[in-house]
User: Which sequence fits this backbone?
């Protein structure tokens, strides 16, 4: 009996959530604040400071060697709570 009461309460709670968030006035609708914003403001980011010679040198090195860059990953085996090996 207690399980049935808990199940009915959970179903009632889920239905109330669905009704008040999605289904109202007999039709499905999307919230207006997500689908149709009232105004959209677009701003540009502020221009960065001028780069010094060392930064410009680093950028030049990166651009020169961009084709030779590779992705290196590593995997370490550690022990979990039950002393089983787990890759990280």
Assistant:
């Amino acid at each position: 009996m207690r399980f049935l009461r808990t199940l009915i309460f959970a179903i009632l709670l889920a239905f109330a959530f669905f009704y008040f968030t999605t289904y109202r006035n007999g039709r499905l609708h999307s919230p207006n604040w997500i689908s149709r914003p009232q105004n959209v403001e677009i701003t540009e980011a502020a221009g960065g400071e001028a780069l010094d010679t060392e930064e410009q040198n680093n950028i030049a090195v990166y651009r020169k060697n961009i084709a030779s860059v590779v992705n290196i990953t590593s995997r370490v085996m550690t022990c979990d709570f039950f002393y089983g090996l787990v890759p990280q």
